[in-house]
Design a protein that fits this description.
It contains 17 helices and 7 strands. The chain is mostly helical. The chain has a domain of about 210 residues: Rossmann fold (3-Layer(aba) Sandwich). Helix 4 links the parallel strand 2 and strand 3. It starts with about 45 loop residues before the first helix and ends with a strand.
Length: about 400
């Protein structure tokens, strides 16, 4: 039988797929981050989170102190480190540790994808004054961004690929240009969510992690090559911000990216409250439609909205699931409470879609047709009436 969009989801007639969910949190086996399950049904993300209880954080702090002293500029002729920041609560916490506690002189670098919420922009602009630091704020061409939004959606079902690539590329370009080797990241996302690594690995930022996972194996040149196929136009000169420095450049400077979450216990809820109290960090003025947290992803109005809806379309879960898993692991929510939240919020098609459609010049019908191409057949099937169905936890 020829595999078509309609029949590839009918794995077995009248017998739709069954999804395995973690027995402790609420992650499905179809997770977008690498995830494994033990014989009791517990996922690797929960196991990694459990390691934080037994870590000697005082010893880790001392390791961190020795490490940063290797990079402190002794004569004041350059910055001590670079911190890639979006202006969120995690950015605030990173600067709090580096500048306020240890007195380093960081250079902040922001990739601005043209989608900031009003509150997110207030937080971003407040950082420079709250911490008295220098800040590079970079915005690519708006027309190029719109083109990359469309192409990202068409190529991989992700209109925000440019944003992932931007934050994991442009600050490294600045590190090379400024000859500042040490880069300070917050938490390792795939380890924090899915247990991709153990906390005992003390994993650091790598080009391979960026390319294979954060960027899904795509690079700037894929957009140049694919643009004509979709009647779009991009040239090499348009994609400079997304071009990663070559090995010779990074080795000359000695670029090294470390994660603060390896050295200080990472509890985002606690960090957020501290940043509100100490530095005036603001939560969203209005609740999000697709998640209950109001302190996360304020730098992009679509990150908690239609970009996240695409994750639901592809993998069957969204941002509410991510946040529920974090809160279950932190002991702030029961699994039953979490299930009620995600079954309510994950399926919502948020109203920010209308802004994005106007931004890129698409219709909602175009969006839906493209979105359906990326549904995971492990998750979705069509009933006899042609309606999309999935297993819910």
């Amino acid at each position: 039988m020829e595999l078509t969009l309609d029949n590839k989801y009918l794995i077995e007639p009248n017998r739709p797929p069954k999804m395995l969910y973690c027995s402790k949190c609420v992650y499905p086996k179809s997770s977008a981050v690498p995830l494994a399950f033990d014989d009791k049904g517990e996922c690797s993300g929960c196991k990694a989170a459990g390691q934080r209880v037994d870590i000697d954080w005082d010893r880790r702090r001392k390791m961190f102190e020795r490490l940063i002293e290797e990079y402190r500029c002794k004569d004041g002729s350059n910055y001590d480190c670079i911190i890639p920041v979006s202006g969120g609560k995690d950015s605030y916490f990173q600067i709090h540790i580096i500048k306020k506690i240890y007195g380093l002189n960081p250079l902040l670098v922001t990739y601005h994808g043209n989608n900031y919420t009003p509150t997110g922009m207030k937080n971003l602009l407040n950082m420079r004054e709250a911490f008295d630091v220098d800040h590079i704020f970079f915005t690519p061409s708006i027309n190029v961004l719109k083109t990359m939004n469309r192409l990202g959606m068409l190529m991989m079902g992700d209109m925000n690929w440019h944003g992932h690539a931007g934050i994991f590329t442009y600050p490294i370009r600045v590190a090379v240009q400024q000859n500042v080797p040490l880069m300070i990241w917050g938490e390792h996302g795939f380890m924090d969510l899915g247990g991709m690594h153990s906390y005992n690995d003390l994993v650091e930022f790598t080009f391979r992690y960026r390319h294979e996972h954060c960027l899904r194996g795509y690079e700037w040149y894929d957009f140049v090559e694919q643009a004509p196929k979709y009647n779009e136009k991009l040239e090499k000169k348009d994609l400079i911000p997304w071009m990663y420095p070559n090995d010779e450049e990074t080795e000359r400077v000695g670029v090294r990216g470390i994660y603060i979450s390896n050295f200080f216990k990472w509890e985002a809820n606690e960090h957020g409250e501290l940043m509100k109290k100490e530095y005036g960090f603001l939560e969203a003025e209005e609740p999000f439609e697709r998640t209950y947290r109001t302190m996360s992803n304020l730098d992009d109005m679509h990150e908690n909205g239609i970009h996240d809806y695409m994750k639901y379309i592809k993998f069957g879960y969204g941002r509410a699931t991510d946040h529920v898993c974090k809160d279950i692991r932190a002991g702030k929510m029961s699994r039953a409470e979490g299930i009620a939240i995600i079954n309510k919020m994950d399926p919502i098609k948020s109203k920010d879609l209308q802004r994005w459609l106007k931004y890129v010049g698409w219709t909602e019908k175009q969006f839906d047709e493209v979105a359906d191409r990326f549904r995971d057949p492990r998750v979705w099937w069509k009933d006899k009436d042609g309606n999309w169905k999935k297993d819910n936890i």
